[in-house]
Write a structure and sequence with these properties.
6-stranded parallel β-sheet, two-stranded antiparallel sheet, Rossmann fold, 331 residues, 3 domains, 8 strands
Amino acid sequence: MISVYVTIKSKKLSNDFCSCIDKSGFAKVTETFNTLNDCRKKLAVRRPQILLLGLDLTDGYWVDFCTKIKEDYPDLKILVITSYDEYSVFKSALNNLTSGYISKDALPKVILAAIRAVREGKFVRYNKIVVQKEIDEPDPVDALAVIRQTVNEINPEVNDQDTIGKLTLIIDSAEQYRKMKIIDLIKDREEKNDPDGLDACLKLLIEGLLIKGYSNWDIAEMLGVHIETVRIYRTDFILHISGQHTLVFKNNNSQESIQLGRREQQILRLIAAGYTYKEIADDILYVHIETVNTITDTLRRKFEAKNAMVMIIKALRMGLLRIEEIDTISS
């Protein structure tokens, strides 16, 4: 069993990574921390095989931390959670001080593959495009062929373990086929540049999976979408069943109020979490970047803010955003 320490600022992200690793069957999270200092103290007593490390911890600089850790514990593998933009900036330090990096929005199977690779002494470079190409996509025709063949092999008059196994194979193949058709549907809407149709499609699919009890990570992996996309639609679903379609907030200290529509609330929270306009447009909401720019301009006018920073500060003061909510989204 591969032992892993997780040191990430965001509690939500930490929980997501821990859940993914603990379900793997070959790795186990033995300690979690949200500061470098707490991690450093525990390493002095007991060390894991792999340390999963975020770059946004506020009680020290990760380069200094990794330099010292590498000097004191040369056998410890450090796998960093970052983004492509951060990697391009810190490439030299990451290559020299760590065993690789993965994206903060990496799917569970990518996270687990990275842990295996690092344990084997390989350096992991996360590239979203390469990862997608490396994932063996099953053929829908093959899945249907398996179902048809297995159905023909079942004798309805026989009730034995072999029959049960065949029925299980049919169910598994049907679920695989359903997932592939869902992904194809999403890709088709995206390629046709139909954001409204894609939005309606994602809303229907994600709400259905939420009702069935799937977790955020399971849905993200199943649909091949960003984890934040799932969280956005989960919030929409909760608002919908509570009868809220727009949100009206009043200033805690005055009668001033601001009404936010669905997209405005989404983009406000994502900007506060540190996502770029391009990430919000391309990776999370699947809209044109001009749509994000336009809505952001509208938000600034509503808040009478000259820039995004002032807007976020005003939103925090008015209670539209809470630090713990931002931490839930960001890494």
